[in-house]
Amino acid sequence: MKPLSPPLSISRDEIRAIYAQGEDAVIAWVESLVARINALEARVEALENQKSQDSQNSSKPPSGDGFGKRTKSLRTKSGRQSGGQPDHPGSTLEWREAVDQVITHAVVNCLGCGASLEEVEVLNLNCRQVHDLPPLQ
User: Fold this and answer.
1) Is 92 a domain residue?
2) pTM surpassing 0.85?
3) Domain ranges, residue 26
4) Distance of alpha carbon 32 from alpha carbon 66, whole angstroms
């Protein structure tokens, strides 16, 4: 990537001095400005294209775009499957007979057609217990 040119600044007096030199000086100055604008536009377009390309949508290898091959993990395989292991006893919260509060969530209407289910026999009953943590003191 080529280095940036210094910012272009010119005062009104300098513009008048170029104008006073004649038509050829003004034409040369405008041509140099147009050439600089074209070069900057080409550079902007190249940078925008470079930013929008990665190894998925260009022919460049992944090392050049920052999305290269990830480093390999140094952890060794244990030979066990992921998740709970067969020899682990596990533990669950015990079901309590004495509870503080019972909330019944009854299904009154069919979710599909909206018909009343008040006269229909219960086929399935799900029971759950929620264990809340005591408030901090």
Assistant:
1) no
2) no
3) 12-64
4) 37
